[in-house]
Design brief:
By secondary structure, the protein is mainly alpha-helical. It has 42 helices and 13 strands. It holds the Pfam family BTAD.
Length: about 1000
């Protein structure tokens, strides 16, 4: 590789160590032989191994860290293990010391506690890597090292490919360099080692990778100029000089590209523009390369215009071009706007067209199918484009194709004319917007493929053509935060086109995320939103885009979109549906957050006998519905943009909303039957998954059927604390009660009990007691129908009094609850709950043995009836009683810690977020009591953050152990070390911090 010197014809200025391989004097390429091995592309998920085979492990750090093992992605856990692995990968195969890991990962000095945390985290990472790869994390006397060959990491592979793409060439074809540099840049997904922030540990290596990327971007455009792709290179360079105005190489290439495009005046103007920039801002003249290029342009050096004939990229060893084949420049124009993302999809498309002769790009309206096809076609000299969006008559399909490929009109047999024109060509025929012509395409596409062996057809359509040999590439919307271009990045790029010099603020970024979420990441919708940037700010657009499509603009003239608005694009999709499928679709828009097939079957129109599976499958095939099968059970979802359009055109919205609300009621009633048995966790998971639909149904019923809303909210009285929206649940219960003063006693009592539950979990003990007393006042002790609700209300009264430290009243309430249970045969969960109150009485009496025995019995009863939350709550209460023992010492604190670890494990499987926060709060006290003060402080901060967001009081169980414990806990927490600010800790990281620290403590000798 040439490390110094000048490009032939023009000296090159720059100190990166990498030099371009092209001459401005004809751009004679000297790049290496065409890459055909596994490094020549990045389509294959399995990476080339060090011995030429397939790598079983591949580590990605050019963006958020990922590890692929045998083609699958390893689950690394939360931020801590990800930062640790990133720090080890930055060691480039050398050992990283424990002190460095403590500083980089934990931002702390190396202590015994941090050393234990490192060991625990390394153990988890080894488990994540699996038995076959755990040995990659090696322990050395100096610390730990990640044993990876350069080709087993994206930064090693990236560096190698950039070196090859910019190294000393061996022939005159720059296409190999283009492919190598494109494949290198495709590895880049974001900021290298992003998990490590601004750590000095990685700053040098990150700067090197960033500089190599800048070089690769520049030399990719040099290679494109060398093979005649002048327009594409100029478009990219025009943007890149704005992004990095002091990199003279970019101005050099841009000026040359403009000169070759016949824009000599513009080229000289750009050279003078960069001179003014450098002199004005840096006080320096341009380097020798720019000065020499300007002189050659002024004398019209003819060698600047010499360009070699481009080599068709479709040529393959098994398909040599025919002797009379025309070598033409690209026939399909590239759109003038910059493509954001889609590198992976372009790579997949290239692979599909290499493997199949008929490929169809499918996807919903506005997802960018046409744009992807045009981007691919613009890179080829052998592509022809046929736009079919405005073609309404199937009879005109063959004549339209014949005119596009042959340039002549024939009234006799246009299909034969097209086949004759294509018979000896190796071409790609792009058929854009085919969804309305799928039947006619079978009579045209299949004969052409049979009669033209060198022909390949690339189609775009909302759904597959259904033809023999067809390969389908389904295009998804842009992600909000992804590896390969994001929806927000697209929005910012298009806003800048309308507002020169605009720089997004933090508020703009937040608004952009809102806009892109509301628009499902659809590129067309995002571009239309950006078109409004001339008149509104992003915050204004975000405020209206949820409900008003007129918050979006219209496509620019010359846009690749065949539709004048997003509404037109979505409407076109729905208009093509058969009547029965359209009727089913219009019943699905009220579902928020998705739905199962049973829900769709429940709401489908009564006047249709259509099988629901067939109808849903047809809607998925036609790209108006998505199906997620990742959980093992299919869940369907309408894009938000389609939902809003369907709502707008639904001829009977009221009936549709009634059908949706009726399904929610039946679903809730069905799952509520499981609350008192061993399938409680299953019911909570199912209801939590439908929470968005439940909210929508209750909102509907509060306006149209308030009695139904009251019944639903009351039945769900324990869901509001299990699934998390505690304050929201309490507000809904109160609204429903206020709306139904004359509702049946049982429904009102259930809602009051729900208010008591949510108030207790929110720390509002006065409201909890008042609601429980109100429920008891409504219920009749002599009516067996009221038995379960009566006992439930007794339990809530006991809990409220325990939270209030009401000694004598609490004793009386607990004994009354136990007596009420003895007179009946209550469900197991109520018998276990009654024992919790009795345990409080024993604690007040100072009978520690009776406390332990009562709560152990409560746990056994809960386990026997499947009341798993009851098992954990019994452990949590016993842990607090143990922590209340000031004389117990470390042994008692360790026993409490073991109980809390077991409780947290149970709560994790429920879900039961509110009570789990209570267990973690007790865990803070246990850790602090055992000397793990730093971890206790961080855990306390995380628990407080999550409790504030969910509206719960994590310390409520502590109060049952008396005021002395509460005072001691307050002093203990005040003495914890301060915790630096930063982003709130994720839930899984909070749990991992607790269990990891507890494990390290219990492992101590």
């Amino acid at each position: 590789m040439r490390l110094s010197g000048a490009v032939q014809g023009v000296p090159h200025c720059g100190g990166t160590g990498f030099q371009p391989a092209y001459s401005f004097s004809g751009f004679q390429s000297t790049c290496g032989p065409r890459a055909t091995g596994p490094e020549s592309h990045t389509r294959v998920r399995r990476r080339p191994g060090p011995r030429g085979g397939e790598a079983v492990i591949f580590c990605r750090v050019l963006g958020p860290i990922e590890v692929e093992i045998e083609g699958g992605t390893a689950e690394l856990g939360g931020p801590i293990p990800r930062r640790l692995l990133a720090a080890l990968s930055a060691g480039a195969g050398s050992a990283v010391s424990l002190s460095t890991l403590a500083e980089v990962v934990w931002d702390a000095e190396l202590t015994a506690e941090v050393t234990n945390a490192i060991r625990v985290t390394v153990h988890r990472l080894r488990s994540a890597l699996g038995p076959g790869q755990r040995g990659r994390l090696e322990s050395t006397p100096q610390g730990y090292r990640l044993a990876l060959a350069p080709e087993e990491s994206d930064h090693g592979l990236f560096e190698r490919r950039v070196e090859r793409g910019t190294g000393e060439p061996a022939d005159t074809d720059p296409s190999a360099a283009v492919r190598m540099l494109e494949s290198a840049l495709a590895l880049w997904r974001g900021r290298p080692w992003t998990e490590l922030g601004e750590s000095l540990h990685v700053s040098g290596l990150r700067a090197r990778m960033t500089e190599l990327r800048e070089i690769a971007l520049e030399e990719l455009q040099a290679a494109r100029l060398a093979r005649g792709e002048t327009a594409r290179a100029v478009a990219a360079l025009s943007q890149s000089v704005i992004e990095a105005p002091y990199r003279e190489r970019r101005w050099e290439l841009l000026a040359l590209g403009l000169y070759r495009s016949g824009r000599q005046g513009h080229a000289l103007a750009e050279l003078r523009r960069v001179r003014g920039l450098l002199v004005e801002e840096l006080g320096a003249e341009p380097g020798p390369a720019l000065r020499a290029l300007e002189q050659r342009m002024l004398v019209h050096d003819p060698s600047l215009l010499t360009v070699p004939a481009p080599v068709p990229v479709s040529a393959r060893p098994d398909e040599p071009p025919s002797a009379d084949r025309d070598v033409r420049p690209p026939a399909v124009a590239r759109p003038l706007t910059r493509l954001i993302g889609r590198a992976r999809e372009l790579s997949l498309l290239d692979a599909e067209l290499a493997a199949a002769r008929l490929v169809t790009i499918t996807g919903p309206a506005g997802v960018g199918k046409t744009r992807l096809a045009l981007e691919h076609a613009a890179d080829r000299a052998d592509a022809r484009l046929v736009r079919l969006a405005d073609l309404r008559s199937p009879e005109l399909l063959a004549p339209t194709i014949a005119l596009a490929v042959d340039g002549t009109r024939t009234a006799s047999d246009p299909l034969a004319a097209a086949a004759h024109a294509l018979a000896d060509r190796h071409e790609v025929l792009v058929l854009d917007n085919c969804e309305h012509l799928t039947d006619a395409l079978a009579d045209v596409v299949l004969p052409l493929l049979v009669r033209c062996p060198g022909l390949r057809i690339l189609a775009t359509s909302r759904w597959a053509l259904g033809l023999d040999g067809e390969h389908v590439l389904t295009l998804a919307p842009l992600p909000l935060d992804g590896e390969d271009g994001t929806a927000v990045e697209l929005l910012f790029d298009r806003v800048r086109a309308h507002r020169t010099g605009w720089t997004p603020t933090a508020r703009d970024t937040e608004a952009a995320t809102t806009v892109c979420t509301a628009l499902d990441g659809l590129p067309l919708a995002i571009e239309l939103a950006a078109a409004r940037a001339r008149s509104f700010g992003l915050a204004d657009i975000a405020a209206h885009v949820h409900e008003r499509f007129d918050a979006l603009g219209t496509p620019a003239r010359g846009s690749v979109s065949p539709h004048h608005s997003l509404v037109a694009a979505i409407g076109w999709s729905i208009e093509q549906l058969p009547d029965r499928e359209r009727a089913l679709l219009l019943r699905l828009w009220p579902f928020d957050g998705g739905f199962c097939w049973q829900a769709a079957a429940s709401v489908r129109p009564a006047d249709t006998d259509q099988a629901v599976f067939a109808g849903l499958a047809a809607l998925v095939d036609r790209s108006v519905l998505t199906a997620d099968v990742s959980s093992g059970h299919v869940r369907y979802r309408l894009l938000e943009t389609i939902r809003r359009h369907c709502r707008a055109i639904d001829p009977d919205r009221a009936a549709t909303l009634r059908a949706h609300a009726e399904w929610v009621r039946s679903f809730v009633a069905e799952q509520a039957l499981l609350f008192t048995g061993p399938r409680f966790s299953e019911a909570v998971h199912a209801l939590a998954g439908e929470l968005a639909n439940i909210r929508a149904s209750i909102a509907h019923d509060l306006d149209h059927a308030p009695a139904q809303a009251l019944r639903t909210t009351g039945v769900l009285r324990y869901l509001w604390v299990s699934a998390g929206p505690v304050l929201e649940g309490r507000a809904l219960l109160r609204r429903a009660l206020d709306a139904c003063p004359e509702a049946p006693v049982t429904d009102r009592a259930a809602a009051l009990i729900g208010i008591s539950v949510t108030s207790s979990h929110a720390g509002d003990t006065g409201a909890a007691l008042a609601a429980a007393d109100a429920a008891l006042a409504l219920l009749d002790d002599r009516d067996p129908v009221h038995d379960d609700l009566l006992l439930d209300a007794h339990m809530r009264r006991c809990n409220a009094l325990a939270d209030m430290e009401a000694g004598a009243r609490m004793r009386a309430a607990a004994l009354a609850f136990q007596a009420a249970c003895d007179r009946r045969d209550p469900p197991g969960f109520l018998r276990a709950s009654a024992l919790w109150g009795i345990a409080v009485v024993h604690f007040q009496d100072g009978d520690t043995a009776a406390v332990t025995e009562t709560l152990s019995r409560a746990r056994e009863i809960a386990a026997g009836c499947g009341f798993t939350s009851g098992e954990a709550i019994s452990d949590l209460q016993l842990a607090w009683y143990l922590l209340a023992d000031e004389q117990g010492g470390e042994a008692v604190a360790c026993r409490a810690l073991d109980l809390l670890v077991r409780a947290v494990a149970v709560f994790e499987g429920q879900p039961n977020g509110s009570d789990e926060l209570g267990a973690l709060y007790a865990g803070v006290v246990a850790l602090a009591s055992l000397g793990a003060r730093e971890s206790a402080a961080r855990l306390h901060r995380a628990v407080a953050d999550h409790a504030a967001r969910s509206g719960t009081d994590p310390g409520r169980y502590m109060r049952c152990a008396g005021p002395d414990l509460a005072d001691r806990v307050t002093r203990l927490l005040e003495a914890l070390p301060p915790v630096a600010g930063g982003a709130p800790m994720a839930w899984e990281d909070m749990v991992a911090l607790f269990t990891g620290t507890a494990g390290a403590l219990t492992a101590r000798p």
